[in-house]
Amino acid sequence: MKNEIKQDYRAAVDILQSIQGLPTPKPMTALDESVDQCRRWRRRLELATARNWQAAAKDAADRLRGALDILRMRSTHTIDDLTRRTRPHLEPTATSVYRDIEGLRGEFENVTIDRAKQRVTVQTSNISLEFVELGSFEICLNWKFIKESSPYDVLAVEPNCPSSNDSVTHPHVQGESLCEGEGADAIRRALDEGRIYDFFCIVDHILRNYNADSAYVQIEDWDGVSCKACGDNINSDEVVGCCKCDTELCLDCSTSCEACVDRFCSECISSCDACGGELCQMCLKSCDDCGESFCTSCLFEGTCDDCINKQNETNEDDEATSEPPKPAVHTVRDGKVAVPA
Fold first, then answer.
1. Of 105 and 3, which is predicted with more confidence?
2. How many CB atoms lie within 10 A of CB 73?
3. What is the pTM for the complete model shown?
């Protein structure tokens, strides 16, 4: 017990030193680069427009639009950083950080501190969202980077990923990153003020709530399956498997064989060369003469209609060229009647 108290207090001192350390100034060079990029593409757009170079003008306009988007994003980040630096906030002490760590041990079942790696990790209890069991999560704060934008990771202990995306472990967690949504400012403020207990509780609260507008995967699609043809998410009990290659499809993207009625993907279904009927490769037969594929209704004794017609035409031509010779007739002489030889 005493060793745990000592460890917690030493960790509190380390965390306080990280919080009170000189803030790493955000370089303004990125903002300057974005401004220069916007100016450069604006000049090219003006030049291309003046010379009526339509293709070049379109390209310059697209690039200027992209540069302006980047400038807007970097400007927003810079404004947020300046606001965070200048706004009044609570000044933590080693004692306040220590009490927060003790509070964590009362709030969460598993709390581990690794001073060598400069990490505090808590494990949540099991989380369920709208009848989908997601299990418990580890929230790992790396206090070495406590002044950075995202100094923590969220890891699923036993991931229950949706079938459509195995990098998503929670509607708001992709990889090990949490989509903080409206909680971003509260999280940042808690870290800046050394309120470690509040930080972990805020993250835990976000994990226990669902916002469909910011979800990586909608919770109603969690247990669904992605159709390999169109990409739509379908319920697992509505999945149609190709009878040949087992590809998972929705009903609309599968095709029924007109002969055996089994369903197949577009790669495993073919059509009769005569009637156009859709059949699987097992139900199609090859014509003995031409080798093309046909349904059994379009074959007669293993031969397709075209080949039968060609055979009939060939037989008729042979009969026409093999007529019997006409009998020879002798020349009429001396008034006698001509008789066959």
1. 105
2. 11
3. 0.57
Compute the C-alpha angle 310/311/313, nearest 5°.
65
Per DSSP (E only), the strands in 213-262 are 225-226, 233-234, 240-241, 248-249, 255-256
Integer-rounded Cα Rg, in Å, for the chain is 40
What digits encode the pLDDT tens for the residues 292-327?
888 888 988 888 988 988 888 777 766 666 656 555
d(CA 145, CA 132): 33
HSE, CB side, 13 Å, CA atoms: give it for residue 59: 8
Q: Is 222 left (phi over 0), alpha (psi -120 to 50) or beta?
A: alpha
The three-state secondary structure class of 83 is helix
Q: Which amino acid does the sequence have at 31?
A: L
Task: Tell me if residue 14 falls in helix, strand or coil.
Answer: helix
The answer to whether the beta carbons of residues 143 and 120 sit under 8 Å apart is yes
Of residues 291, 254, 257, the one with CA closest to residue 271: 257
Largest CA distance in the chain: 154
Distance CA 149, CA 176 (A): 14
* CA dihedral over 59, 60, 65, 70, signed as positive or negative: positive
Measured in degrees and rounded to the nearest 5, phi and psi for residue 272 equal -70, 135
CB of 249 closer than 8 Å to CB of 227? yes
